[in-house]
Specification:
With about 325 residues, the chain is an alpha/beta fold. The chain has 13 helices and 12 strands. It is about 35% helix and about 20% strand. It binds alpha-D-ribofuranose and calcium ion. This is Inosine/uridine-preferring nucleoside hydrolase domain-containing protein.
Length: about 325
């Protein structure tokens, strides 16, 4: 049964690869794509998303532009890393100045729909009750705002699959912005808290599985894209840039989240109660998993009811086969 999916993106390199995987998976019918600021500002994210859809001859898929500022205090100035002794913007470093590994694509001919992404999300979910799989590969600002404005939509979404969080459930479940915080949650922890506190049925694909060495992109992945087509040139360029800037550890976070909608067998998943640290410095955006014994929780008058299903294992070979074979067939 084909799943109707909405993908919420902050199109940088791995978002683009996730969109291409979704477009080339018969199990998924991409109803629309919503954009939000994250790796770049929402204008550039929207431009990149339109360019990727046009390159993939999928420009008929509507794109709705969303929030440009997080619900949380903006910490963009902290998204700074030091490379060769110089301070650079993390998003620009890892995704390139244009967000697509500085690959040159023509300016998009298509434009986003007039509706704001938050309104578009609410409308699409309400007009397709219990049919939409919502895949988020970005900060949760649009989705957090949508469930604030119309809480009832949470129960109308069939499933929410999010790339985000670091849950300490595998040796790779450490942060990528702070020691404990993953970028999508760190960028807007208040929005993430709205999502985890809502009635959305969320599956979290966190760094625990997306930083697993078995899914790291390497140069030999490029052997799948040698046929000389524009799409293969684009995909090769994205992967090469990601490997170069990934300091030898380039992870396809967003396509891994998309693969959870295609083949759930790739993952081991367990239910947990997760709370979000919405303030702080080294712990802003931490996804805190309740692991205390039930008695320790209840004696403090708290409950341990799970609010999310968290990925705690990945079959890296299965994912890489799906990812590389599906994308190379597009070329
Ligand atoms: O932490 C990885 C996530 O942050 C990915 O979605 C990547 O695109 C960035 O947004
Ligand atoms: Ca992303």
């Amino acid at each position: 049964m084909t799943k109707k999916v909405i993908i919420d993106v902050d199109t940088g390199i791995d978002d683009a690869l996730g969109i291409l995987l979704a477009l080339n998976s018969p199990e998924l019918d991409v109803v629309c794509i919503t954009t939000v600021s994250g790796n770049l500002g929402v204008e550039e994210v929207t431009r990149n998303t339109l360019q990727v859809l046009e390159l993939a001859n999928s420009e008929k898929i509507p794109v709705a532009k969303g929030m440009n500022s997080p619900l949380s205090p903006d910490k963009k100035e902290e998204e700074i890393i030091i490379v060769n002794g110089k301070k650079v913007n993390g998003g620009e470093y890892f995704h390139g100045k244009n967000g697509l590994g500085d690959y040159k694509l023509p300016q998009p001919k298509t434009r986003p729909v007039k509706d704001h992404a938050v309104d578009f999300l609410i409308d699409k979910i309400r007009s397709n009750p219990h049919e939409i799989t919502l895949i988020t590969t970005a900060p949760l600002t649009n989705v957090g705002k949508a469930v604030m404005e119309d809480p009832k939509i949470a129960r109308l979404v069939d499933e929410h699959i999010m790339m985000g969080g670091a849950y300490g459930l595998t040796p790779y479940g450490y942060g990528n912005v702070t020691p404990v915080s993953e970028f999508n949650v760190w960028a807007d922890p208040i929005a993430a808290n709205k999502v985890f506190s809502s009635k959305l049925s969320t599956i979290a694909v966190g760094l625990d599985v997306t930083q697993d060495p078995s899914v790291a992109l390497t140069e030999d992945c490029l052997d799948h894209f040698t046929q000389e087509t524009e799409l293969n040139a684009f995909i090769s360029s994205l992967i090469s840039f990601h490997i170069k800037r990934g300091q030898g550890a380039a992870y396809p976070h967003d396509p891994i989240a998309v693969s959870a909608a295609i083949d759930r067998e790739i993952f081991e998943i367990k239910d947990f109660l997760v709370k979000i640290e919405t303030e702080g410095t080294i712990a802003r955006g931490q996804t805190v998993v309740e692991k205390r014994p039930e008695a320790f929780v209840t004696m403090r008058g708290e409950v341990k009811t799970p609010n999310a299903r968290i990925c705690c294992g990945i079959d890296g070979g299965k994912f890489m086969n799906l990812f590389l074979n599906r994308l190379s067939k597009m070329g």
